[in-house]
Structure formats: structure tokens, C-alpha cells
Amino acid sequence: MKASSIRVLLVDDHTLFRSGIRSLLQSYPEFEVVGEAGDGREGIHLAAQFRPDVVLLDLNMPGLSGCEAARLILEESPGARVLMLTVSEDADDLIDTLRVGACGYLLKNIQAETLVAAIKTAAQGESVVSPQMMGKLLNGVRGAAAQETRGSAPIERSVAGAAPTAAAEGGDLDKLSPREREILQYIARGQSNKEIARALDVAESTVKIHVQNMLRKLNLNSRVQAAVYAVENGLVQTPDT
Questions:
Q1: Could you give the dihedral angle defined by the CA atoms of residues 80, 121, 23 and 21, in that order, rounded to the nearest 10 degrees?
Q2: Alpha-carbon distance 91 to 209, whole Å?
């Protein structure tokens, strides 16, 4: 094992799919696949045994669900980063997994290089959500806000556990510089640092610094929280899905 390697645990009930992911990651020197599990309970055991940096976890498996497995893995191994890798495009599944502490939600139809980049992002302590799922998450936030505006009862299925609301935990929007506001809007549209850098014609490292400063000023922990904050504060509108 190399000291700088990212230790990854694969949890998926499809053996062929796990083999494909293992082969992909083994082609990169920065990854080490420390184990494979065919169900959630085995995944919990192996996570406690191997202490991986990132757990790639399927959502729909026989027996224990991926969402429940994620919760228990994080209870036993709080230092792990759980990254859901699933075929489900259901917004409720996304919200549930973020609520229990998963750091990201990816669809299985993503490109190999996108998965590799997402694992690296997760290992660095950041959150990552497939762009098409980010839209559904943000629309869910807008829908909840609209219901509250109409005087409806509070929605139980909120994203508060995963992404604190601006009123409850977010900092002061006025603290942001014009550039940080602009970058926050790009984040809310699901854009990566590389995409933002290209759009603004600046270095990716510059964008990363702005993102870190923006999260600190707003007292937020992740890009997902920042995206929700932006929508709740009317900085960006997302298309209905």
C-alpha cells in the first residue's frame, strides 16, 4: 500500500459491476481497493475492518438497504466518506442518503473519468452529486419553500439533515464578494470547479480558493449545502423536472 493512496471499499450486490469498478480503479496508482462486499451488512463489517477513505455503496441491495447501510457504516467508521453509486433517479432516495450522512450521490451511467474524479473529491472531504440529481434536490427545496409560503404544514421530507437551511445555519450573504456570489450561482447549477474556471476564464485553483472562502463565510460544510443556500436565497432558479 502506498502512503498517499485513497483506500476504497466497494459495496454492490452485482459481482460483475464490482469487478469493473475494481479494474478501473486499479488502473490508477492513487487508488487501493481494500475490499468488496456483496451486501450492506458485509459492507458494514468490512468498513470497520479496513477503515477505507471512501465507500462506494449501491442503494438497492437485497436485505439491508444502501441508505441504512450508509448510516451504520458512518456510525462505526465516522472517518469514511460514503459515496452512493446507484441507478435510482428518485429525489427521495437522494435526500434520504444525504440526510444519513452520505457525501455524494452518483448515477451508474456516469463516465469512468467522472467517477474517478468524484472519488478523489469525496476523499478530500467535499460533496458531489450528479448534475441531474442536483436539479431534483434544488427543486425539492424550492417546492418546500413554496408550500411554506402558502401556509402549508412543514414538509417532513426536507433536506435539513443534509443541507442546513439558510435561515437556520447559513451565514450572511452580504459577506460574499461579487466573485464569490457569482461562483455560488455556478455551484447551484451543478458546475464543477473546472467548469466554473472555464466559464470565468480563471485558474481552477483560484476557483477552489473562492469556494473555500465562500463556504467559510456562510458557515456551510459542502457544495450541496451551498447550492441549497443559493436557491433558498433566490440567487438561482432551476428548471422544473
A1: 70
A2: 30
What pLDDT sits at residue 133?
82
DSSP E strands, the chain: 6-11, 31-37, 54-57, 81-86, 104-107, 128-129
Does residue 231 surpass a pLDDT of 80? no
Q: How far apart, in whole angstroms, are the C-alpha atoms of residue 214 and residue 204?
A: 15
How many whole angstroms separate alpha carbon 169 and alpha carbon 219? 7
Angle at 135 between CA 187 and CA 227, to 5 degrees: 30
Mean pLDDT of 129-154: 61
Mean pLDDT calculated for residue range 187-213:
89
Query: Given pLDDT bands bounded at 50, 70 and 90, which one contains residue 44?
Result: very high
Q: How many CA atoms lie within 13 A of 213 on its CB side?
A: 14
